[in-house]
Amino acid sequence: MSAEAIQAFKNLENEDFRILQVIEAAMTKHEYVPKEVIIKYSKFNEEEATFRLEKLHKFRLIRQTRQPYLGYTLNYAGYDCLAINAFVKAGILEAFGKPLGVGKEADVYDALTPTGERIAIKFHRLGRISFRQTRRKRGWTTEDTHWLLRSRKAAEKEYEALTFVYPKGVAVPKPISQNRHAIAMSAIEGAELAQLREIPNPKKVLMEILRNIRKAYLKAGVIHADLSEYNIILKPDNHILIIDWPQHVTKDHPNAQQLLKRDVENIIAFFKRKHLLPNANPEEAFAYVTGKGEKPTIS
Ligand SMILES: Nc1ncnc2c1ncn2[C@@H]1O[C@H](COP(=O)(O)OP(=O)(O)O)[C@@H](O)[C@H]1O
Ligand SMILES: [Mg+2]
Q1: Is the whole model's pTM more than 0.85, yes or no?
Q2: What is the number of domains present in the chain?
């Protein structure tokens, strides 16, 4: 999906971005924004607006309806282009590279800054499928049903978590910037624990994970809340990184303790299931990460 956006982006001019922005803003009121409304707020004449809309439609950045009126709505690719444009204007982004991870709830791309630094851009994608059903029941555009707002919220939350924990020395990608549903962060190397056929020195790896969970909790007051072998990267130097933080909660959250416990249990369960550390004890590990217990003895 964002492959389309990256391709289309090169062909877009300021006038096209203005149209995309007008549609974006009006989408809080309309599922499909009437062409009349787009003309009015873009301040383009009808001929210019028509030309721009047809171009954006041809690149599949917007979707069109003809009934009961002529109107347009953003596709994810159109929303992607707005975020990409903001990063380019801010001097953060120069060029896109290959996809790094295309998942259910996010697409991550390799990219370069104007100074040649490698970064990763993550586009959050939430609620594109289910929103049609919820819409009927709950009415158009509330904070929790609109894919645009939900995706932006996820990016804001993830970026916030990274800015809380990164300065405390927790092993996460370095946060660089956030716009709409996208975040820019340092690019990392390695593979998810879940993908690895072999984990060298599992005891050391588990201890490093627990130390980082503990640091995030005790120094930043942050709990990941979606931790598993899928969100832990083992780097080529055999150190770990914890990624994918949009679901984080702070330690004053009513379920903070349960969520922290579940994170620790998920990780321990993985090492047990793989017969790497059959005697690892989740209670000991939980006491350690909350600062109430000693370093656990793992075997
Ligand atoms: N900063 C990064 N640098 C390189 N690759 C990344 C980075 N962040 C994520 N990835 C890759 O993208 C995949 C998906 O990212 P993740 O944040 O877990 O999103 P989600 O699981 O919601 O799709 C990761 O498993 C990883 O392979
Ligand atoms: Mg993930």
Answers
A1: yes
A2: 2
